């Protein structure tokens, strides 16, 4: 019996290799699926720190809104959401893909940090000829928005922070974030496991993001398409690894913010828990307005577009006055 077991091992080994090769082939074959389903909707700007894909919409001569997406999101999250159409008649909408996300590449080995995102946003505002904007940030994008207002306060009229991830807390760094830093594990993840894992992660993350509401099919399809990109895995890894340290440094500066700040938080938020994030942040920013959604979760711009639009548009005249 022992000899028979040994004879089977080569076949098992070849079977495993064949399965891995098949997985790699499927992942490789579908690596550009996001381009087939969601071709670029905006223009690519050649900025000093790198090419940046920007989706624009709304009313050209209206007050500008810079919309910054979250950690594992893309710029397309904004125009796909029902919030976009509600804002469009009243504001000029500017939604960039952050470095490493969507159609904005990250340079090989580039550290995708909050500070790098701020630098890219400032370059974009210069390229667009905009001296000042109201900034809407969702989740990780709220951290970028806060850092932007702290670094260049004269460029920010007001902040609207949706489900902000703005304060250091346990659980911000996920173990998976370190995988792309290990060569063999990186190859296994991005070349073999990304396709099947992408489906599982999108399903789990979607459930957590929209809870207690059902997941929007349009959002889930978009996430499935973009989350399988090797570059996005690397960007997400960098963001997760450095976020806690960056938020710790930013937290000490929040009391110095002087622009109007509106914070929107859902009580049932599973990704940026309301008591530790939205509620706590509003207490650290002078004069911040906190809007609490008792039946909301993390994706408020999808689940509560009317209320989010009302709060966002209210920030425009308030900052003008």
Automatic annotation (TrEMBL):
Pfam families, A to Z: Abhydrolase_1 (PF00561)
SUPFAM superfamilies: alpha/beta-Hydrolases
Keyword set, alphabetical order: Hydrolase
A cellular-component GO term for this protein: membrane
Protein name from the UniProt record: Alpha/beta hydrolase
InterPro entries: AB_hydrolase_1, AB_hydrolase_fold, AB_hydrolase_sf, Epox_hydrolase-like
Molecular functions (GO terms): hydrolase activity
Stretches assigned to the AB hydrolase-1 domain: 63-305
């Amino acid at each position: 019996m022992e000899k028979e077991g040994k004879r089977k091992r080569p076949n098992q080994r070849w079977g495993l290799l064949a399965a891995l090769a098949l997985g790699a082939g499927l992942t490789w074959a579908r690596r550009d699926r996001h381009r087939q389903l969601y071709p670029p909707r905006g223009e690519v700007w050649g900025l000093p720190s790198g090419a940046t894909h920007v989706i624009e919409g709304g009313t050209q001569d209206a007050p500008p809104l810079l919309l910054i997406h979250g950690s594992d999101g893309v710029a397309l999250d904004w125009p796909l959401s029902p919030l976009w159409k509600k804002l469009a008649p009243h504001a000029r909408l500017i939604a960039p893909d952050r470095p490493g996300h969507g159609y904005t590449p990250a340079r090989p080995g580039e550290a995708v940090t909050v500070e790098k995102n701020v630098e890219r946003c400032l370059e974009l505002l210069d390229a667009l000829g905009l001296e000042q904007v109201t900034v809407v940030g969702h989740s990780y994008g709220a951290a970028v928005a806060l850092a932007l207002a702290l670094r260049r306060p004269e460029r920010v009229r007001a902040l609207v922070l949706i489900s902000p991830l703005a304060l250091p807390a346990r659980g911000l760094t996920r173990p998976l974030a370190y995988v792309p830093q290990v060569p063999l594990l990186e190859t296994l993840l991005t070349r073999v496991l990304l396709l099947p894992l992408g489906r599982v992660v999108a399903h789990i993350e979607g459930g957590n993001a929209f809870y207690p509401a059902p997941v929007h099919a349009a959002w889930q399809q978009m996430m499935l398409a973009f989350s399988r990109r090797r570059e996005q895995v690397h960007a997400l890894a960098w963001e997760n690894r450095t976020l806690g340290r960056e938020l710790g440094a930013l937290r000490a500066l929040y009391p110095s913010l002087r622009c109007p700040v509106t914070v929107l938080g859902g009580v049932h938020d599973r990704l940026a828990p309301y008591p530790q994030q939205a509620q706590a942040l509003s207490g650290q920013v002078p004069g911040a307005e906190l809007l609490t959604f008792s039946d909301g979760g993390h994706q408020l711009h999808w689940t509560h577009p009317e209320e989010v639009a009302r709060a966002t548009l209210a920030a425009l005249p308030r900052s003008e006055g």
